[in-house]
Specification:
The chain is α+β, with helices and mostly antiparallel strands. The chain is 56% helix and 14% strand. It has a 5-stranded mixed β-sheet. Helix 7 links the parallel strand 3 and strand 4. Helix 1 runs antiparallel to helix 2 and helix 3 packs antiparallel against helix 6.
């Protein structure tokens, strides 16, 4: 068992070394995910190989598993790299005016945060007509990256009752989801959730904080078998 573990660690170390990148490398995220996938695959392959062939199976399993795992991790990372770049490019004006934020999460999801001050009227779940152009840009990109699903999440500040804010957050999420579906995104790719006032980003004691808390987020979630 010690010999098998040593072989697995050696194989993983070689794979991680091959994926090294500098902090300013534009493909750093993809390389890191490829390395993580390679490590997981190598360990799994080493265990399976050791069980099947106690002589040299662990090393062969580690190398084969590492290659497969690395390809899988790189595939998801590269797919989301490309999608993120499109969001950032096409929504540059909205980002500069602080209407929208585009963020990459550690689990490879993309989070697009929309300020409800520019997307909805006060106490309303009806999307402002001027904001539909922005949603059209989002729809265009989401429609072309069919290996992702979208979870629309509504949030509010704490003004009003918790029950009212919960309903408002749900209704706003549904409005965005319906607009996306009307724009051609398959309904089975879209889900909604309202979190009311439960997850503030800032204090509700100031207007600036409450404005940050009133938002709708789009979580762009990749399929895990992208290669």
């Amino acid at each position: 068992m010690i010999k098998m573990a040593s072989i697995g660690v050696l194989a993983v170390g070689l794979m991680l070394a091959g994926c090294a990148s500098t902090p300013d490398d534009p493909n750093r995220n993809t390389k890191e995910k490829a390395a993580a996938g390679a490590a997981i695959g190598a360990i799994a392959g080493a265990i399976i190989g050791h069980q099947q062939d106690r002589s040299g199976g662990a090393l062969r399993g580690a190398l084969i598993g590492g290659a497969a795992g690395g390809a899988l991790g790189a595939g998801v990372g590269l797919y989301m790299d490309k999608q993120q770049a499109e969001f950032e490019r096409k929504l540059a004006a909205e980002r500069d005016s602080h209407q929208i934020e585009v963020e990459r999460l550690e689990n490879e999801n993309l989070k697009i945060t929309m300020n409800s001050e520019v997307s909805f009227d006060f106490n309303s779940a009806s999307i402002q007509p001027a904001f539909t152009k922005t949603l059209d840009k989002v729809n265009d990109i989401v429609g072309r990256y069919s290996r992702t699903s979208v979870r629309v999440v509504g949030h509010t500040d704490s003004v009003g009752s918790a029950a009212y804010n919960q309903r408002l957050s749900e209704d706003r999420a549904k409005s965005v989801a319906w607009y996306m579906e009307d724009g051609g995104v398959a309904p089975q790719r879209v889900s909604t959730e309202g979190r009311g006032e439960a997850q503030p980003r800032a204090t509700n004691e100031s207007e600036a904080g409450r404005q940050l808390n009133r938002r709708v987020e789009l979580l762009i979630i990749p399929d895990r078998d992208i290669q």
